[in-house]
Amino acid sequence: MNFLKRYFSVAYPYHLKPKNLxxxxxxFPLQFDSEEPDIMQEKHDSQVENNKFLKEEGDSEGIKAVFxxxxxxxxxxxxxxxxxxxxxxxxxxxxxxxxxYKKLGYKIMTTGSxxxxxxxVLDKTCTSGxxxxxxxxxxxxxxxxxxxxxxxxxxxxxxxYRIEDRNIKRxxxxxxxxxxFKKINQDENIEQYLLEIKEIFVAMGSFPIFIATYDIGIxxxxxxxxxxxxxxxxxxxxxxxxxxxxxxxxxxxxxPSGYLWNMILKFLKCDKFFSEKFxxxxxQYTIVDIDGFMDGNPILR
Length: 301
What we know:
Helix content is 29%, strand content 21%. The chain is of the alpha+beta class. The protein has one domain. The strands form three sheets. The chain has a four-stranded antiparallel sheet with strand order 2-5-8-9. The protein has a three-stranded antiparallel sheet with strand order 1-6-7, with helices on one face. A hairpin with an 8-residue loop joins strand 3 (144-148) and strand 4 (157-161). The two termini are 32 Å apart. The mean pLDDT is 86.
């Protein structure tokens, strides 16, 4: 049993047991009554010792606020407030997954306090290449190939889109300023944009996007629980003092910067594309998963 706990708790979503064995409400986005895994304490101690506690890209108070907003919005079914915070596919699933429970008269409640939360970075991975932060606009991972950025000490791998269509025209990225990526990402008829998306990836060439994905462990008494039509607790705990572990996955997008880089972008007619098309993603956290609800929700599948 200890081996199984160790096995499940060393990789995302880091819980000591799989969700289908932990609770009856398996379609609920969060995993209830989850204990703190060993990896969280190990990572927390290491970060405190090395003074690296979320100082490079954020702070623990900011993460607490993000977590609190997510849970309170789910409880209030206020999904509109999450549109700029949660990735579109995850937000769509949050809305639909609760519908069946709602028809049965179930309600989501909050309890506890966010003030006692412990926040720890459990893992960080970087994905770079010719893709877009809007997941529905990217092609399958099998259609990309690895190249390496010259000059990088760590030989950062780049996901370059493999060009198989010789009829793809080479254009400047600024030629695509009229496209509304957010709207297209939400469109069920994305096929009509496939040619333009291919042209964008070809035009991106040596201008990769960088996305850092953080797995954040949160141990807090602030949590959700579910009651049925008789107000009986049927999922989670209503004890305001009981702490619960959750794993939050965040994307953080960056682009190369500096005077020389900006001059190159301007010369190659790419400057407005990068400065105007990713305002809702650039240098801010976006929630892409919690407790494995989205199976990790990678940028490329």
